[in-house]
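[Structure tokenization] protein backbone as discrete codes
[Encoding] learned vocabulary of local backbone shapes
[Protein] chain in single-letter code, fold in tokens
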Amino acid sequence: MTDEDRRDEETDEGDEPEAEAAEAQPEAEAEPEAEPEPKPEPESAADDQAEWTPPPPDDLNVFDMLRAAIGLFVQEAWIALGVQARPGTTEVHTDLHGARIAIDTTHLLIEKLGDEATAEEKREFEQIMTNLRMNFVRRQAKQG
């Protein structure tokens, strides 16, 4: 029998040589499960910052939060009065209804802070409220 005849016999027997070869090899270890796909990276730094909020300091209390909120509403009032551009833009727009809400909310937050405000803070808040109200009246008179 020639080598060619032997090869023909092996192929005539079907897949037995392959099956025997597979049985002769030790079983392969199970493949580890695929890791979950990572979240897509934000397209810009602004997107990244919008999703992440720093944890508050351990000693932060409600009065500190009121002070921070007062600052936010004061800024929003100036933006709505058309005195200041919104951060990230150069355009100013006047929105007297929004300005009125921001000013009233600032006043409410200052009242809630109450005796927790220092004398210096009280003077500063009084000055801020006076400036906001005067600017509001001026802007309202221009539009009226």
The chain has six helices and no strands.
